[in-house]
Amino acid sequence: AMLRLRLLTWDVKDTLLRLRQPVGESYAAEARAHGVRVQPEALGQSFREAYGAQSRRFPNYGRGRGLSSQQWWADVVKQTFRLSGVHEDGVLTLMAENLYRDFCSARNWEVLPGAGETLSRCCQRGFRMGVVSNFDNRLENVLSQCNLRHHFEFVLTSEDVGFAKPDRRIFEEALRLGGVPPEQAAHVGDDYARDYRAARAVGMHGFLLRAAGQGKEPGVPPEHILPTLSHLLALIEK
């Protein structure tokens, strides 16, 4: 039977958009522009360490802790470089500003294959559409720059809501904005726990985007798995 869906919500990172290159490569290129040589692999490792520590100390991009997300990210960038042996304050501040700006644009993000076409077709079919993403408030701008923003009635980030997936409250807020009960909504994402399982826990339908060769997750029936985004409409309309 065809699912009676009215609302589709979407994860963004690695579902609709992906980074054009690893974070370490972007940071290394920025450093080179200032005459500083650092290995991309080392920066990637330092970034994961700095990002993890900052997330534990100030969850959700510093919301409610007196930090703007821009300050939050500036601290992550500076700490990333410090961990990789770069300590000159003036250069750290400049690099942090430049990287914050660059990650807000299509310069560092690209649309995944089939994403634009799938979103257009879902809109044409009359689905209401929204974004549910663990992202800071640059997301509206990133989506606009990548020419995807117009598909969505709302863009809900964890920074806006104050809760990050898999917290049920970010999905409940999406359902409130979409004005539909959970059984008439489906969430599409690439993360088993944060996207698929979390959406199902509030009573929504879930579709898990899984690139070929990724491991099998427990308890995901094959009809909920998307090898590519282009498979979505066939599954919904079955």
Automatic annotation (TrEMBL):
<dbReference type="InterPro" id="IPR036412">
    <property type="entry name" value="HAD-like_sf"/>
</dbReference>
<dbReference type="Pfam" id="PF00702">
    <property type="entry name" value="Hydrolase"/>
</dbReference>
<dbReference type="InterPro" id="IPR051828">
    <property type="entry name" value="HAD-like_hydrolase_domain"/>
</dbReference>
<dbReference type="GO" id="GO:0005634">
    <property type="term" value="C:nucleus"/>
</dbReference>
<dbReference type="InterPro" id="IPR011949">
    <property type="entry name" value="HAD-SF_hydro_IA_REG-2-like"/>
</dbReference>
<dbReference type="InterPro" id="IPR023214">
    <property type="entry name" value="HAD_sf"/>
</dbReference>
<comment type="similarity">
    <text>Belongs to the HAD-like hydrolase superfamily.</text>
</comment>
<protein>
    <recommendedName>
        <fullName>Haloacid dehalogenase-like hydrolase domain-containing protein 3</fullName>
    </recommendedName>
</protein>
<dbReference type="InterPro" id="IPR044924">
    <property type="entry name" value="HAD-SF_hydro_IA_REG-2-like_cap"/>
</dbReference>
<keyword id="KW-0378">Hydrolase</keyword>
<dbReference type="InterPro" id="IPR006439">
    <property type="entry name" value="HAD-SF_hydro_IA"/>
</dbReference>
<dbReference type="GO" id="GO:0016787">
    <property type="term" value="F:hydrolase activity"/>
</dbReference>
